[in-house]
Amino acid sequence: MQEINIFYRGFMSITNYKQRKDSQQFQKVVIYGKNFDELQEELKTHFISFANSKGGEIYFSFDNSGFRTSVKLKELIYRILQELSARINLVIELFDDENDFGLIAKVWESPVKPVYDKKAGILASSFVRSGKGYRLLTSLEQEYLATESQGKSFDSCMLPSSTIEDLDIESLRKAIPAEMKNGLLLTEELLLEQLGLVLKTNFGMIGGIPTIAGILLLGKDVMKFPEFDGAFVEIEQNERITSLSGNLLQQITKLNEKAPKLMKSLSLRTALLIFIENAILHKDYTKRKPIKVTIENDSFEVITPGLPTYGMNLSSLRTRKVPRNEKIYYFFKLLGKNQITSSSELAENIEVETEYFGESLRLKCSLRKEQQVVKEKIDIESKNNSLNSRRKKIEKRTTFEETDSELLPRHAEALKYFSNKEDGVITRKTYEKKFNVSQKTANLDLVKLEKLQKITRYGKARSVYYKINS
After folding, report:
1. CA-to-CA distance for 275 and 324, rounded, in angstroms?
2. Contact 106, 90 (CB under 8 A)
3. Is 122 left (phi over 0), alpha (psi -120 to 50) or beta?
4. Alpha helices in 320-459 (DSSP H)
5. Which of 89-103, 175-189, 301-315 shows the lowest mean pLDDT across its residues?
6. Lowest mean pLDDT among 110-119, 148-157, 176-185
7. Distance between CA atoms of 271 and 98, rounded to whole angstroms?
8. What is the CB-side half-sphere exposure of residue 435 using CA atoms within 13 A?
9. Would the pTM count as exceeding 0.70?
10. Does residue 412 come out as left (phi exceeding 0), alpha (psi in the -120 to 50 range) or beta?
11. How does pLDDT run across 370-393, given as a tens digit for each residue?
């Protein structure tokens, strides 16, 4: 596996490029806006060389000052995409390594190439590579291959790729729906994922890139960070449809006017969106019915038909015990307005309400505006929990279990033994030795005999003793 690590910190540098066979290494410092084109050409060459062979990874790491460069970075990704074969898989994920965060572009070639067997009249292979595993071809994909491909390889069924600049959005708006009916789902994935990267980068969202089928509704100007109302985007993956509706860009633009830096204005909203995307695309969610996500003003509403799932588990997010939530928690920590650093601060900034409607789970995430009130409420609850715990411990120490109101054989023997003594005095230590019982059992026996009014207690603390009642 070959690696290229790129770190964005105002300026950009390439470090630690390793090729396992000959351990080739190189390091460069690239000044933003000067020799970026040279970097694109060189990096594209290395990327394509191992992407079309054994696969590889490219790490793009940057801090808060790197958002400006990340907008330029998308151009490099698009140029690389144009050189990849249709069988090359591209996955964009978040990564967190030694206080660095960013995105990682993973590429590999699918080992399975679905081909229509004309003689047999069936697909030679009905599975294609998806993520770390395989997925079955959809019925539309199989139908298209069986009726339209006529024995051609799957690659020849793909629409020709084009650069982002050459895309005719108006034509695609009309063409894509018709092609979708014929089953060109992989084609639209290849094409629309590129457009999706444009939108997500402009949003400041650098991870959880899904297949976006309705992104064409936004038009070509999406690369220029436009304002628009009533945007409606449909996400289709594994027969699941997620709807994102609302004037999100307009709201973000308004927030940006009040903040000096884009990343600050997008901080918590961006993290919530990334969190929602990762949740709705996770396999824990139902695949039979659509999942709807509504974005209005400062609130996010997620409705999932079917039984409750684990994708939106905020408690797991806080404890960082779930790997898929670790990356999202890191964004809360790094991008939060107040630099969220603990789970308690995270709880102060997020409000979660769960309501059940039949078999649906409705979850609302909204920004907390009155953090101080919430903090006081949390402190009061914590104090009450502490008092209750302390009270239970005290009760546990002072209570004992009564078996019944009758004397046990051991009790009767003890009364007979001590009544024959001249002084009739009973101590705990004497009781322990005589009847070979533990300290706890001796105490319980003596307390029970006292409650049954067989003996009387005298003294205090360590000088406690008992006498037989006459």
Report:
1. 9
2. yes
3. beta
4. 323-335, 343-349, 371-398, 409-419, 428-435, 439-451
5. 175-189
6. 176-185
7. 20
8. 26
9. no
10. alpha
11. 334 444 455 555 666 666 666 665
Q: Which two tokens stand for residue 328?
A: 């999202």
DSSP letters spanning 59-94? EEEE-GGGHHHHHHHHHHHHHHHHHS-TTEEEEEEE
How high is the pLDDT of residue 439? 85
The two three-digit tokens of residue 153, written as one number:
């390889």
Residue 334 three-state SS: helix
**First vs last C-alpha separation in the chain:** 91
Please name the amino acid found at residue 320. R
Cβ-count burial 439-450 (b if 16+ within 10 Å, e if not) = eeebbbbbebbe
What the block records as the tokens of 418 is 């001590």
* 405: Cα separation from own chain's centroid: 58
User: What's the rounded Cα separation, in Å, for the pair 209 and 145?
Assistant: 27
Residue type, 401: E
Laid out side by side, the sheet with 425-426 consists of 425-426, 465-468, 455-458
Hey, what are 27's tokens? 């390091």
Which domains, from first to last, does the chain contain? 1-112 (3.30.1710), 409-468 (1.10.10.10)
